[in-house]
Each structure stands twice: as structure tokens, then as C-alpha cells.
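The instructor's notes for this session suggest beginning with a concrete chain rather than abstract definitions. Hand out the sequence below and ask the class to guess, before any prediction is shown, which regions might be ordered.
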Amino acid sequence: MTKRMIAAAEKRSAADQNGGASSSPIFIASHVEPQIRHSIAKTRFVMDGNKEKLRRKANGLLKAGISVYFWHHNFARIHGALRVTPAMEAGIVPTALDWVAVIG
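After discussion, reveal the predicted structure:
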């Protein structure tokens, strides 16, 4: 609330005391509504930014998960029909790799 609005509310409050009415300040909708609209717009802006941030992070995690899956499929998993990994069959690696080879 601005200083002018507070002063007007205090004047109304003093006038109401004389008439026996409530001393609580009266809020006029035309002053309150823009503040509420601004608050809602600001909240929406912040939420949209957070949604986009989460979307980008999820996209990166999805790509990482798919990469790990393909690494396991081609370098670590021994296939039944080949009896070796596809990377061993192609001559890229001499033996099947394990998770220690990836991490360390």
C-alpha cells in the first residue's frame, strides 16, 4: 500500500469510529486487483522458468541414460548368438568390459 492509501484508510477509520462502524481499513478493489494480478504474473514467470530448467535437465539425464544403455549393450553384455560382445566381435576391445572400466 502506498502512503496515500494508508492515510486515506486512517481517515476513514477515524470517521467510522465516530459513526460506530468498524475501524478496520477498507480496501478498494481497484487498488488491490492490479497488485494481485502482478503477483500472479510474477509467480507464473518464475514457475515457467523452473519448468524449462527441469525440462533441460531431464533431457540431459535421458541422453546420459541412453548412452549408458548402449555402452552396456555393445561393450559389456555378452550376447547369446555371438557368445561375445558386439565390440569384441568388431575387434574394438579384446575382452568384455565391466563398470570399473567406465568409472575408473
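Then share the key points. Residues 3-103 form one domain. The chain has one domain: 3-103.
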